[in-house]
Specification:
The protein is α/β, with parallel strands linked by helices. The protein contains twelve helices and six strands.
């Protein structure tokens, strides 16, 4: 059985290192799709090293660039290029995938381009736009219907595109891992996660939650205020439903309503709660 047949026949969701290696092995070009808001939190060093050691063309894709100021995107592109990486930006919202299409169209006929990345970086949406029709499955939040659960192969421009599951064993930031690997409704302790996330957001950009939701204060006060403002109460006790408020904060962060981003000069450790 060929590597391509073995991988495509497996109903996987989380890629093991072996599966990453096999997917890279049959690929000519490897695209690592990152969320342009927090690219360093989501990079996969194993993927990158595997691609480079095996002589594959590795391209870092800063997706959702519409959620980040232009000068910050330019800083990130320079940051990665200065470190020897090929780097481009994309935005499905703006229809900005020109550089990505160019790389694919210049590829040899019959070659394979694989797309890797954490959940909710927009891999499948990019592939849908490349193809011109919605054939790669998409979803709004991690784990919801449409979420990529197995490796999928698509043909376009006389080449093949390999779309891998979004949930990778990435070297990711702990908060990002929790909110991207499960839908908000299934996170075990959404209040704890939201408090950690709020502390990070407010530490980097004070007033960010007030701008997004019109609430302020310490993390718990923000959750209570948001629950009251939205009319979310526990029926039995008539107390603010802070769990639902916590899930809303997580959703707002994932879909970009909370306008948070980091810059290359930001110290990753300083952003931890």
């Amino acid at each position: 059985m060929s590597p391509a047949r073995r991988i495509l026949g497996s109903p996987i969701r989380l890629l093991t290192k072996r599966e990453i290696f096999e997917s890279v092995a049959i690929s000519n070009t490897v695209f690592e799709v990152l969320d342009a808001r927090v690219p360093e939190y989501l990079r996969n060093s194993f993927l990158e090293n595997t691609a480079l050691k095996n002589g594959k063309r590795l391209v870092i894709v800063l997706n959702k660039s519409d959620l980040v100021p232009r000068h910050v995107i330019s800083e990130w592109i320079s940051y990665y290029r200065d470190r020897g990486f090929e780097c481009i930006e994309t935005s499905v919202v703006r229809g900005d995938i020109g550089m990505l299409k160019k790389i694919l169209k210049e590829s040899d006929k019959g070659s394979i381009a694989s797309f890797f990345g954490a959940p909710k970086v927009g891999k499948s949406s990019l592939i849908n736009m490349i193809k011109g029709r919605s054939s790669a499955t998409t979803s709004r939040y991690p784990g919801t219907p449409g979420y990529t659960r197995g490796v999928q192969l698509h043909r376009v421009y006389d080449i093949y595109i390999l779309d891998t599951p979004g949930a990778l064993p990435i070297d990711a930031d702990p908060i990002e891992m929790v909110i991207r690997l499960s839908p908000p409704e299934k996170i075990e302790n959404p209040v704890k996660v939201a408090i950690d996330l709020i502390e990070r957001l407010e530490n980097k950009n004070p007033g960010l939650l007030n701008e997004a939701y019109g609430v302020s204060g310490d993390p718990m006060a923000i959750l209570k205020s948001l629950a009251i403002k939205r009319g979310w109460f526990l029926k039995s006790l008539r107390e603010p439903n802070i769990e639902e408020a916590a899930r809303e904060i997580i959703r707002g962060y994932l879909d970009g309503r909370i306008r948070f981003y980091i810059r290359p000069r930001d110290n990753r450790a300083s952003l931890a709660p």
